[in-house]
Amino acid sequence: MTSLHKVTRDELPILLEWTAKYLPLSYKHYETIQAKIQGIWQGTPLYTLGWPDIRAVGEGPADSSECQCADYFNKFQATSVFSPNSEDLEELLTTPGFLDWTKPIIFYAICHDNGDVVEKVSNATGTKYNTRYVNHAFLANPGDVVERTIPDGFHIRSLDPDLHSDYVASTWPHHRLHTNQYIAEVLKSFPSVGVFDSDGNCVGVELVVEWGYGSFLHVKDEVRGLGLASCIVSHLAQKRFQENKPFLAATLTSNKAAISLHEKLGFKIVYQMDWFVHSMSSEKVVLSQ
């Protein structure tokens, strides 16, 4: 069995080059590695199966001395994995010391084929408590999305990590312990958009996370139907485009409204991606379970 290799900071460009070969399926790791190289994100360490002949990559436990939101990743094991080869991914997932399958594990932003392998390994433990969330992954390149005009009585500005982290966490149906800490760190490092009414109340949000996707999109019920979600997404997309980067988003395949919104703005579905929650008991890992 091939041993795990912990990727050092100096080795990140090699791993970035490897993930670039498999875009768009590897966008989660490709964007995260770029953020690490730029020094704007620490997050979780990366491990590979094989080095320098890389066969698979996955995230390990966060180091609290480097990551200010380590509890978000470590309270329940949170990881993202990728491999273009199912057998290699299965070997990574079952390599001793990588994951503890007797405890809850949250897999996020994994391509759909990799989700099949995760589900296979999870089912092999005999659990009846795993949950799979299938999403469409959308992509827009610079020029694909036109910035929408904000309606009268509202204005847009970036979110403040000290003022808005708790609010964003409270609106997310999949939040778990320490989500507010994670959001605070994301807001310090990546673009965000908040819509505020004439009284200064935040009524809509979205932010870019470390893997390049727009996340946590939410508009308050009482102001829905005014086109605010389209405004938020289009304005956040421009911030990515100004960096000459694509803007990505993920929506559940069952969320017809979100799918329609992104398609009307100019996004295209490029692949399917999964979130997968493994647990050996009925204990809730995320709120939506």
TrEMBL record:
PANTHER family: GLYCINE N-ACYLTRANSFERASE-LIKE PROTEIN (PTHR15298:SF1), L-COA N-ACYLTRANSFERASE-RELATED (PTHR15298)
Domain of life where this protein originates: Eukaryota
Any one Gene Ontology molecular-function term assigned to this protein's record: glycine N-acyltransferase activity
Organism: Arion vulgaris
Name of the protein in question: Glycine N-acyltransferase-like protein
Enzyme Commission identifier(s): 2.3.1.-
UniProt lineage: Eukaryota, Metazoa, Spiralia, Lophotrochozoa, Mollusca
Gene name linked to the record: ORF96450
Pfam family, one: FR47
Key words, A-Z: Acyltransferase, Transferase
